[in-house]
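Key result, reporting period 2: structure in, sequence out.
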């Protein structure tokens, strides 16, 4: 038997975390790792004490036919990356790696083009996380340098305002 590489090992754990997700559209699992130690984990779900979409049986964004990547303020859930960051100390996250896996809630299929939203990117940057590893298939992944998100700031707009 061949030993699983570390990236896929941690992505497998992040994928397991998805099992706690409560979104009716897409669920994500995230873990933050530093020096081969899991610092924290997070999944997609409503804030503590609030009713989850799976318990309500409805998704507001789905009812309104809102496309992926838009109008997150209407979503009941806190994203997996945000939940993982909330559960960790910044000093532990400096230079860490965040592993992220997304699945379609209806089909259970991996989301091959999963990525962090603009708000989560900002939190990841401020947390001091160095890399984000995103699962594309069961064995393939992409590695994103968080510095690229800093350098290529999508919030500046097309005119390059500062």
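The corresponding designed sequence is given below.
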């Amino acid at each position: 038997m061949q030993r699983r590489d570390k990236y896929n090992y941690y992505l497998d754990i992040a994928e397991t975390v998805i099992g706690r997700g409560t979104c009716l559209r897409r669920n994500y699992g995230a873990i933050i790792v530093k020096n081969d130690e899991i610092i924290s984990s997070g999944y997609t779900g409503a804030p503590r004490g609030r009713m989850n979409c799976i318990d309500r049986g409805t998704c507001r964004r789905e009812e309104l036919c809102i496309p992926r990547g838009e109008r997150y303020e209407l979503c009941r859930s806190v994203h997996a990356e945000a939940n993982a960051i909330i559960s960790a100390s910044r000093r532990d996250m400096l230079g860490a790696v965040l592993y992220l896996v997304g699945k379609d809630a209806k089909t259970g299929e991996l989301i091959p083009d999963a990525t962090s939203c603009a708000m989560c990117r900002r939190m990841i940057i401020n947390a001091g996380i160095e890399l984000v590893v995103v699962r594309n298939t069961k064995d393939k992944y992409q590695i994103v340098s968080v510095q690229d998100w800093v350098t290529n700031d999508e919030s500046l707009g097309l005119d390059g305002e500062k």
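The first strand starts at residue 26 and ends at 34. The chain has a mean pLDDT of 90. This case is discussed further under Risks and Mitigation.
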